[in-house]
């Protein structure tokens, strides 16, 4: 190899220009500064909120004092600010006079990733930073609930969460991997708000709550629960108005079950029922079965009352049977192995759902005895006790009296049937069944009956009715 070749292949040292080095430094510093300046400009300019002012100051200090940051260091700085913003979002409070939705939106514009901020390392403890800001507001706040729909809608708009994840409210791969935040929201009460107001620890609060003689404190509890329920219902309505939740979510999330946990969530229950009353019978099942299986008497009463309101002709599904069972819900509710309700307790619940005609005179009285005789005749006497006027009521759809329904269903000679006959006499002595056109003794003779006694008509009933009106046969024309 020649000397020339050796000179050509020899690596020559690169002369570094101090001028060029300083230029690179200035360019990188400018890029870093510009990034923080851009974030500062996204903040709401007209807001005088103390957090926004502090955030603006931190961004200005970063852009003015930092000469150069590596890409990693720059991300760390932004991440620290995102953590501050996430903490701000978790503590949104509608009592803050300087806080409005425009201010919150402006802060989110600058730091949208704060919507999905949470501490993955502390997932086993119930700390605020274990949850996305929107989740924490829904789980543990009262005065921040009005901002939760905004955070959820912004999360969807900025593609931080999908529509199926309801803006983070039902995010399945998040810190809790469940619908826990929305289910807790539906069951929440005003206890946290009252404890903060009174400066009480949870143990002290629970001790006073169990003191039934402290009526003044219990009045405060009821007042706090009512205020929380009002705010929670408003937030829930807004979530449906923004289509973050839709009708099917009532069934998928189990909103009726969770919002029927106590008096403190009555308004939320009423609202979700108005959105989707079909949730009382989800996927062909009956929601009334759930509180029976869990031995929850309050929830049973709440769901039964809802069923009576939206499905009165089916008596709230009380006489239905759960899939695979021979027992009706009413039988299960009064069974000692399930709820163990006394007859008076359960019929008081029904009475609350469907008032008797003499109490509810302004509306069309419900022919409840017709349904009882048709579906569960053994409870006729008990229902009669709570609905004494129902024996005279006619079904608006058929014009029938309870006696007509009893005879068609092959009622046996008993005190209820004897009373039905004698009380209505002589009103229906010569009256034909409006549906079949048969006289009473003919209805009894031709009734098909139910169950094992099918077709085994009671001759005592037929004979008594025929003796009561022996001329009916002669006057009958086919």
What does this protein look like?
This protein is mostly helical. The chain has helices spanning 3-9, 18-42, 50-65, 71-90, 101-110, 133-140, 148-157, 180-187, 191-198, 202-209, 215-241, 247-253, 255-259, 266-275, 289-293, 297-310, 329-334, 343-353, 368-375, 380-386, 402-408, 415-424, 440-446, 459-468, 472-475. α6 packs antiparallel against α7, α16 runs parallel beside α18 (343-353) and α19 (368-375) runs parallel beside α21.
Briefly summarize what is shown.
This protein is mainly α. It is built from 25 helices and no strands.
- Percentage beta strand: under 5%
Report the mean per-residue pLDDT as an integer: 81
Number of helices: 25
Radius of gyration: 35 Å
Number of strands: 0
Report how far apart the termini are. 130 Å
Secondary structure: helix percent: 40-55%
Which regions contain 5 or more consecutive residues with pLDDT less than 50? 1-31, 173-178, 451-455
Net shape:
elongated
The helix-strand sequence is HHHHHHHHHHHHHHHHHHHHHHHHH
Considering the chains and any ligands shown, give keywords for the structure.
elongated, disordered N terminus, mainly alpha, single chain, 54% helix, 25 helices, 478 residues
List the helices and strands and how they pair.
Blueprint lengths: L2 H7 L8 H25 L7 H16 L5 H20 L10 H10 L22 H8 L7 H10 L22 H8 L3 H8 L3 H8 L5 H27 L5 H7 L1 H5 L6 H10 L13 H5 L3 H14 L18 H6 L8 H11 L14 H8 L4 H7 L15 H7 L6 H10 L15 H7 L12 H10 L3 H4 L3
Helix pairs in contact: 2-3, 2-5, 4-6, 6-7, 6-8, 11-14, 16-18, 19-21, 23-24
């Amino acid at each position: 190899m020649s000397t020339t070749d050796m000179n050509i292949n020899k690596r020559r040292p690169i002369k570094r220009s101090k001028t060029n080095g300083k230029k690179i430094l200035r360019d990188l510093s400018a890029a870093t500064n510009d990034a923080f300046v851009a974030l500062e400009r996204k903040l709401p300019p007209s807001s005088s909120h103390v957090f926004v002012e502090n955030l603006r100051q931190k961004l200005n200090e970063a852009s003015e004092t930092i000469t150069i940051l590596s890409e990693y260091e720059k991300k760390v700085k932004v991440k620290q600010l995102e953590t501050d913003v996430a903490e701000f979002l978790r503590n949104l409070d509608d009592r803050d006079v300087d806080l409005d939705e425009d201010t919150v939106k402006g802060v989110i514009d600058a730091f949208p990733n704060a919507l999905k901020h949470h501490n993955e390392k502390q997932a086993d403890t119930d700390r605020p930073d274990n949850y996305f800001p929107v989740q924490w507001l829904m789980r543990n706040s009262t005065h921040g609930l009005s901002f939760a729909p905004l955070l959820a809608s912004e999360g969807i708009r900025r593609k931080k969460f999908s529509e199926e994840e309801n803006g983070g409210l039902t995010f399945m791969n998040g810190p809790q991997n469940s619908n826990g935040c929305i289910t807790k929201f539906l069951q929440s009460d005003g206890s946290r708000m009252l404890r903060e107001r009174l400066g009480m620890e949870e143990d002290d609060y629970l001790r006073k709550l169990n003191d039934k003689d402290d009526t003044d404190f219990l009045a405060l509890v009821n007042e706090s629960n009512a205020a929380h329920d009002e705010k929670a219902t408003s937030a829930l309505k807004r979530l449906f108005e923004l289509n973050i939740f839709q009708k099917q979510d009532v069934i998928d999330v189990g909103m009726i079950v969770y919002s029927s946990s106590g008096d403190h969530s009555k308004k939320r229950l009423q609202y979700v029922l108005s959105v989707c009353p079909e949730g009382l019978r989800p996927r062909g099942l009956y929601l009334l079965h759930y509180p029976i299986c869990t031995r929850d008497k309050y929830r049973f009463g709440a769901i039964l009352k809802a069923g009576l309101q939206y499905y009165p002709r089916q008596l709230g599904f009380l006489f239905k049977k759960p899939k695979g069972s021979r027992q009706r819900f009413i039988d299960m509710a009064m069974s000692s192995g399930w709820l163990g309700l006394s007859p008076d307790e359960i019929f008081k619940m029904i009475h609350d759902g469907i008032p008797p005609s003499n109490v509810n005179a302004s509306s069309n009285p419900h022919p409840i005895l017709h349904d009882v005789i048709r579906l569960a005749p053994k409870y006729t006497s008990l229902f009669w006790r709570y609905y004494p006027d129902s024996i005279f009521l006619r079904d608006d759809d058929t014009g029938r009296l309870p006696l007509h329904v009893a005879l068609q269903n092959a009622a046996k000679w008993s005190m209820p049937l004897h009373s039905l006959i004698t009380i209505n006499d002589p009103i229906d002595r010569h009256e034909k069944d409006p549906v079949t056109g048969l006289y009473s003794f003919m209805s009894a003779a031709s009734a098909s009956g139910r169950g094992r006694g099918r077709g085994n008509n009671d001759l005592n009933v037929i004979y008594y009715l025929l003796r009561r009106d022996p001329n009916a046969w002669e006057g009958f024309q086919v």
